[in-house]
Structure to design on (109 residues):
């Protein structure tokens, strides 16, 4: 696994963000993207592309080092993208393009 950061991921971090000093709220309702992300991770594991336990270990390692300034609840998506790029399943350029398509769709009036 590449332990270095990917710029396409680091570019998504809000410049005002910093490492969280407290535990995230545990009783909050997950945002819709979080439920979709969990389903995506389950499918990736089921199809053999990224085992859930392996992903959790990567989240622990990269989430506390390379991506430590990301909010805890977003680390799973960042680390999953990082791992898929490491495995050559998606390139940083492909990810950047897909993110732009989604950002455009999200910001439509």
């Amino acid at each position: 696994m590449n332990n270095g950061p990917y710029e396409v991921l680091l570019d998504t971090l809000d410049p005002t963000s910093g490492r969280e000093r407290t535990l995230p709220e545990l009783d909050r309702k997950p945002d819709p993207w979080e439920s979709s992300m969990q389903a995506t991770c389950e499918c990736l594991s089921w199809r053999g592309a990224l085992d859930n336990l392996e992903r959790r270990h990567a989240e622990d390692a990269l989430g506390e080092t390379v991506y430590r300034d990301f909010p805890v609840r977003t680390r799973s998506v960042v680390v999953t993208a990082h791992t898929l790029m490491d495995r050559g399943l998606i390139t940083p350029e492909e990810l950047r393009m897909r993110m732009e398509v989604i950002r455009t769709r999200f910001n439509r009036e």
